[in-house]
Amino acid sequence: MNKLYKCLVYDNQVSLSVLETTELVNKAIKIHNLDAASAEILGGMLTAAAYMAGCLKSERGAISLTVKSNDGSATVSVSGDIKGHIRGYIDGGDGGLKGGTLTVIKDDGFSRPFVGACELKTYDVSENLMQYFHISEQIPTAVAIGVKIKDGVCEAAGGVIMQLLPGTSEENMDRAEQRMQSFVNAADVVGKLGADGIMREYFSQETQNGGVYLTFPEYKCNCSRKKIEGVILPLGKNELENILSEQGEIKVHCHYCNKDYIFTQTDVDRLFK
Ligand SMILES: [Zn+2]
Questions:
Q1: Which of 43, 244, 247, 263 is most deeply packed, by most CB within 10 A?
Q2: Is 56 helix (H, G, I), strand (E, B) or coil?
Q3: Ligand 1 centre from 258 Cα, in Å?
């Protein structure tokens, strides 16, 4: 089961998140039929999205992270909402997506979304996320996300993320930094202990007074026929009729869950009734 633990540690000065996303990554592998390299990249991004979705406050909140390579040949896009429904896709990333731009959109569903972007130097998702938080949100963040793929299956995915709250003492910064050393090979630790075991083994002292929140992120697309109708309607009846006469049907593909929505003449007639 996918898990996300959240709590405050080290005198409530550091926000801790512990993730186990193995199942989530395996579902993505199945839906998208991913090779190992793509699974590792998308899996890391999905884990990052699960973390950021877990930080949302508003009930209508949503988050998306997109990495585009500099030459435009590869894209990875993931998104998630406050329910912990995470989804994503990777396009042309098999050659290894090195560098590019990361764009993060945080939407609370009410006001204008927050958009942050940063240039990437590597394709290490942990480093990229740290860079993003440092540059775009100015929050010191330590990220150890790992994904381990073997024989087409994700053996372990997840990680540990710590964010320093304003006014964190030097002593607690050191404690956080030192503890993060244990998660350099995050996927191995998740594989061995799971999120439960990481909490027990490394943070039991800090969390003995409670205040630990556990949620269960999952791979779930939020597309629906109704939503797709909302996408094609603005094209207008004429344009849709044109597509119908040229192609016989209107096919809309959802990248996130690899599903096709088909609209026939009858459907279009009904839409414009
Ligand atoms: Zn979908």
A1: 43
A2: coil
A3: 6
Is residue 70 a contact partner of residue 100, using CB atoms and an 8 Å limit?
yes
**Å from CA of 271 to ligand 1 middle:** 21
CA of 215 to the centre of ligand 1 (A): 22
> How many angstroms does the Cα of residue 221 sit away from the middle of ligand 1?
5
User: Ligand 1 is a single-atom ion; what residues have CB below 5 A from it?
Assistant: 221, 223, 254, 256-257
> Counting runs of H as helices and runs of E as strands, what totals does the chain give?
8, 13
pLDDT (tens place) for every residue of the chain, 273 residues total: 999 999 999 999 999 999 999 999 999 999 999 999 999 999 999 999 999 999 998 888 999 999 998 888 889 999 999 999 999 999 886 555 667 899 999 988 887 889 998 888 777 889 989 999 998 889 999 999 999 999 999 999 999 999 999 999 999 999 999 999 999 999 999 999 999 999 999 999 988 888 999 999 999 998 999 999 999 999 999 999 999 999 999 999 999 999 999 999 999 999 888
In order of their start, the domains of the chain are: 3-219 (3.55.30.10), 225-271 (3.90.1280.10)
Residue 224 CA, ligand 1 centroid: distance in Å: 7
From the CA of 228, how far away is ligand 1's center (Å)?
10
CA atoms of 52 and 265, how far apart (whole Å): 41
* 223 Cα to the center of ligand 1, angstroms: 4
Please write down the long-range contacts of 133-141, taking CB distance under 8 Å and 24 or more positions apart: 133/163, 136/104, 139/163, 139/164, 140/164, 140/168
